[in-house]
Write a structure and sequence with these properties.
- The protein is α+β, with helices and mostly antiparallel strands and 626 residues long.
- Helices cover 49% and strands 16% of the residues.
- The chain has 25 helices and 17 strands.
- Strands 3, 4, 6, 7 and 8 form a five-stranded antiparallel sheet that branches. A five-stranded antiparallel sheet has the order 15-16-14-13-17. It has a three-stranded antiparallel sheet with strand order 1-2-5, with no helix packed on it.
- The longest helix has 20 residues.
- The protein is elongated and about 140 Å long.
- The N and C termini lie far apart (126 Å).
- The relative contact order is 0.06.
């Protein structure tokens, strides 16, 4: 022992030194000291089966059975498959036997006997464990209900669960004979519509069978989030006796009726029900009736229905409010999605809530819809029902549509319902869609009708109170305004481009100037004035802003304001003085102030710039002279 201690003092990192010291302590019946040395040896050489075996012995001597088993479990893959492993398998079997793992203990002692068939002690241990197993087999249920695994229940998927499992039950035949004609019954208290029965034709000897559990729920499923008891019963006969084992202490988790898991994106379809009678009645009695006398040059019914629904909800204060979750991300599992009647009751919702409201409204009128699957966001897509030629016949451009799955869809950014008009919503959505494509992604258009084949629509609905949704004249007015705006969609799209650029780069006066000049071009003079003044607030020495603001005032007949702007620009002209004097000359001449016009004319170095604008004014002023 002193020899090993001396060796360890020289080098503490040699496993054999610690192993030797540990074995010496073990032989001297000092198991605790042996454990310390053997633990160090095992740490240094965890793949050494002999060290692991002796470490487990030291632990067993102290009654540390679980710890000893942990070591044996870890080193079993490093044990040689020959007679040298007999001692390992005997100890391993004994430890397993002590903790009641009889099947594993039997397997280990069987291996030991294979390598040492004439060892009486091993043969006796094998017989003893075999006898215990036989007794255990006779005391076990013929068919064991080994496990019940249940998923949380999303109420929106109540129709989905009729054909798809809410969980599984694992059965095991403990006998050496087949058992036939089994009947598994499952009942969910409070929310189950009935007892569900699952016939099982047979279980062969020692067979483990996993049974999928489907369920039919009643309307109380939607009441509130809670846990409810679930009862499982198995009926069968074996050797003339009837058996009925059961589980009754398990519970099933029911989530809130708005719960959704974005890992299963297409399940959003379960919130959109084309046959929702309460929503259909509300839509026909309110939205359809509101616009029943309205006419339009656009003959496409799907586009008109979408515009009418959007205008109605916008006029009546339905608006976007962000929630705390992140929609439509793999990492964002749980989210809440409102049914249409819930959104109409609160008149607010996040992107998927407003999408579901619009989709449900249009689907109830027979208009096919879809959602555009963008990470972190979803947008509505409406099937126009038009071919490319029909789009043009309606005075629209195909570039504002998405061609997919044999149809032309127009997208809508439903988060803008309470903030912007229908055309802006449409153009914002198509712009976002194109940006995602330009970034290298291809958003999927998930058609609700197709998704319903997997995730049928939920039948959860409630009557909708229309009393807070009666701004009908406002809805018709917004509808007519947007009809007129559709004629100018290209112009609006250009404006939205400028707006998006300024949102991204708010300090960029070059973009702001281009936007202002475009507004002057399309005669949106008030907006142009605001933009030019904004430039001057940010850069008080902007020559171009002063000149263009002066031009704007001149165009509006605001002579004094125009002259003031031109005069203000002179200190910053930097070689462009002729341009300023030309503008002042023309302004005063057209205002019949010939003296001032002549004064400014004489200040121009290259007087031909007046002739380039108006040869008559040039000739008149040239004849006037100084």
């Amino acid at each position: 022992m002193d020899h090993y201690r001396a060796a360890i003092l020289i080098n503490n990192n040699i496993a054999d030194y610690h192993h030797g010291l540990g074995m010496a302590n073990l032989y001297d019946n000092h198991p605790y000291e042996a454990e310390l040395s053997l633990r160090r040896a095992y740490t240094l050489s965890p793949d050494n089966a002999l060290i692991g075996l002796n470490f487990a012995k030291a632990l067993e001597r102290q009654g540390k059975i679980d710890a000893a088993l942990e070591v044996m479990d870890a080193v079993t893959t490093h044990v040689a498959g020959n007679q040298t492993a007999v001692e390992f398998h005997v100890l391993y079997s004994g430890l397993l036997h002590q903790v009641g793992r009889l099947e594993e203990a039997y397997a280990q002692i069987t291996k030991a006997q294979t390598y040492s068939p004439d060892d009486f002690t091993i043969t006796q241990k094998l017989a003893d464990i075999r006898a215990e197993l036989q007794v255990k087999e006779l005391s076990r249920e013929v068919i064991e209900i080994r496990s019940l695994s249940l998923d949380p229940i999303y109420p929106s998927l109540n129709q989905y669960y009729r054909l798809n499992p809410i969980g599984t039950i694992t059965l095991y035949n403990t006998r050496n004979m087949s058992v036939t004609n089994l009947l598994l019954s499952v009942y969910v208290h409070e929310v189950g519509a009935r007892v569900m029965e699952f016939p099982i034709s047979s279980l062969i000897p020692k067979q483990e069978k996993v049974v999928d559990i489907t369920m039919e729920f009643n309307d109380r499923l939607f009441d509130r989030a809670r846990r409810v008891p679930i009862e499982v019963t198995l009926r069968y006969e074996f050797e003339g006796n009837s058996y009925q084992p059961s589980l009754s202490s398990q519970t099933l988790e029911i989530l809130d009726n708005k719960a959704m898991n974005w890992q299963y994106r297409r399940s959003l379809a379960s919130f959109v029900n084309p046959t929702d009678e309460a929503l259909r009645y509300f839509v026909r009695q309110n939205i359809v009736q509101t616009f029943s006398t309205e006419s339009s040059q656009i003959i496409n019914p799907n586009l008109i229905r979408a515009l009418q629904a959007y205008s109605f909800y916008r006029a009546n204060g339905v608006s976007f409010s962000n929630d705390t979750s992140v929609s439509n991300l793999d990492a964002a599992k749980l989210d809440e999605v409102q049914y249409p009647h819930q959104t109409l009751a609160s008149k607010t919702g996040d992107c998927e809530d407003l999408l579901v409201l619009m989709a449900g409204t249009l689907e109830s009128l027979g208009t096919p819809t879809a959602f555009i699957d963008i990470p972190g966001h979803v947008m509505l897509a409406v099937n126009s029902g038009m071919a490319e030629a029909q789009i043009r016949q309606n005075g629209l451009e195909p570039e504002y549509f998405i061609e997919s799955q044999g149809a032309w869809w127009f997208p809508l950014e439903t988060t803008l319902i309470g903030k912007a008009d229908f055309v802006t919503s449409w153009l914002t959505a198509i712009r976002h869609y194109r940006e995602v494509i330009d970034s290298g992604s291809m958003p999927e258009i998930v058609v609700f009708g197709d998704a319903h084949h997997i995730y049928p629509p939920s039948n959860y609905t409630k009557a909708i109170d229309p009393s807070g949704l009666q701004k009908l004249a406002e809805a018709r007015s917004l509808y007519q305004q947007d009809l007129a705006r559709m004629v100018n969609m290209s112009q609006i799209n250009i404006e939205l481009g400028f707006i998006a650029a300024l949102e991204k780069y708010p300090a960029n006066n070059t973009v702001r100037m281009r936007y202002a000049l475009y507004c002057i071009e399309i005669n949106k003079l008030d907006q142009a004035e605001r933009l030019l003044k904004d430039i001057l607030n940010r850069d008080p020495q902007s020559f171009d802003a002063m000149i263009n603001l002066g031009n704007l005032y001149a165009q509006n007949g605001q002579i004094v304001q125009a002259e003031t702007q031109y005069q203000a620009a002179l200190p910053f002209a930097a070689g462009k003085e002729d341009q300023v004097y030309r503008n002042l000359c023309l302004l005063t001449y057209k205002n019949l102030d010939r003296a001032s016009a002549s004064k400014y004319f004489n200040l121009i170095n290259r007087k031909e710039i007046i002739r380039e604008v108006d040869s008559q004014i040039y000739a008149d002023l040239m004849n006037t002279g100084d």
